[in-house]
Design a protein that fits this description.
Distance between the termini: 68 Å
Bound molecules: zinc ion
Radius of gyration: 21 Å
Helix content: 40-55%
Strand content: 5-15%
Number of helices: 17
Strand order of the largest sheet: 1-2-3
Number of strands: 5
Oligomer: single chain
Length: about 300
């Protein structure tokens, strides 16, 4: 099989599905799945990291298999590995396509070339709720199938009117910038948080922020995107300042009158304890649990 002339560039931080999708669009194909069929591989298989499909895609693009594998979002047991970071499934959403309309519009150009804008790996994480460059809410689209949602050029083409309309601006927050740089560069610049696995760092930060804003039993299931963004902003103001600040705020939460809860932690911290205890055996959460235990016992 001969190597294709690459009409689009594989960008840093771009998922492999987005790259394949834009290549398909650049070659005038209606979908990434159809494009893949022409070259005898499966787009779904490529998204899943199936060795045969990755090998064929590597052959036609001339991009080494190792470089492609680094960009895969792969299932590992009941976790998902994204850029080397492990996440429980509830933190990753491959079934939807989230995007920043401004990032997309900047690259679409005058002729609305859908092969030009690319997806970003960070948009696949559920806690990534606003653009770390443009301070606007990300908007979410859902294709009829998983493959359609991952077919970025297709999503852009199908939703051009909505994308042109833009999204709500939000007050700048360092939470999403932190998430983005931790995910892509490994460090976020806040020592205490950087020492925790990324899922633990962002999960604890957002939930702490939600408890600060909405009380000890926030109804997390009904929070709107903008309420989550505010929770992230509030949470990172504390967690970015390190352990002393975290202990002080936990102490304030635990000192509020509270009667419910089945054990010391849930009695003192309500929903925050429930969220943390769900992952108590995962690395990073044990440290959080022991900090919370020490504060509750004081
Ligand atoms: Zn943006």
């Amino acid at each position: 099989m001969s190597v294709l002339h690459l009409a689009v560039k594989f960008n840093a931080g771009e998922p492999i599905g987005s790259f394949c999708s834009r290549l398909a669009a650049a070659y005038g194909q209606s979908s990434a799945s159809y494009f893949a069929e022409l070259f005898h591989f499966s787009f779904r298989g490529l998204l899943n990291g199936e060795p045969r499909d990755v090998a064929i895609f590597s052959e036609i693009t001339g991009i080494p298999v190792g470089r492609l594998q680094n960009r895969l979002i792969v299932q590992e047991g009941n976790k998902v590995r994204v850029n080397g970071h492990l996440f429980a499934r509830r933190f990753v959403d491959p079934l939807r396509c989230k995007l920043c309309p401004q990032c997309v519009m900047e690259r679409l150009g005058l002729y609305r070339n859908c092969a030009r804008p690319h997806a970003k790996v960070e948009w696949m994480l559920k806690p990534m709720r606003c653009c770390s460059v443009h301070d606007c809410e990300l908007i979410t689209f859902k294709g009829r199938t998983w493959q359609e949602s991952a077919d970025f050029a297709w999503v852009v083409r199908e939703n051009l009117k909505l994308i042109e309309r833009g999204a709500d601006r939000v007050e700048p927050t360092s939470f999403h910038r932190y998430l983005s740089s931790r995910l892509m560069e490994g460090v976020g610049g806040y020592n205490w948080l950087d020492a925790l696995p990324l899922q633990t760092a962002i999960h604890f930060t957002e939930t702490l922020g939600a408890v600060i804003r909405h009380g000890i039993e926030p109804d997390l299931e009904t929070l709107t995107t903008s309420e989550w963004i505010d929770a992230g902003r509030e949470g990172i103001a504390v967690t970015s300042a390190g352990l002393d600040a975290v202990e002080r705020v936990l102490g304030e939460i635990a000192s509020r009158p509270m009667s419910r809860g089945r054990n010391l932690l849930t009695t003192a911290f309500g929903r925050l304890a429930v969220e943390v205890l769900e992952f108590e055996n995962d690395p990073g959460y044990r440290e959080i649990v022991s900090v919370m235990n020490a504060v509750a016992a004081d």
